[in-house]
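[Q] Does anyone have a clean structure-token version of this?
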Amino acid sequence: MSEPEKRFAARLEKMNQSWRGAEHTSDAAAYVHDTLELAWLAASDLFGDKVSPEIAVAIYDRIDEERLRRSDEDAKHRAEMVDSTTHR
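[A] Here you go.
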């Protein structure tokens, strides 16, 4: 684990111990961190030495939009399933 990763993990741990409800914030922070890292790797793979933080953030935004779209679809499907079983 790199030094920045160790600092990030230590900060998440400290936050989780310091106040109630912090798990939602730390979960979100870890999601953003990991997804942005994935976006950076994708951008580096696609654009090589022309990669920039702006490209990585644009890829992150697209990943998150797709995650939200799929989450919405899943929620609609679950609601339809519940609806179909309760209206028989």
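[Q] Thanks! Anything notable?
[A] The chain has one domain: 3-86.
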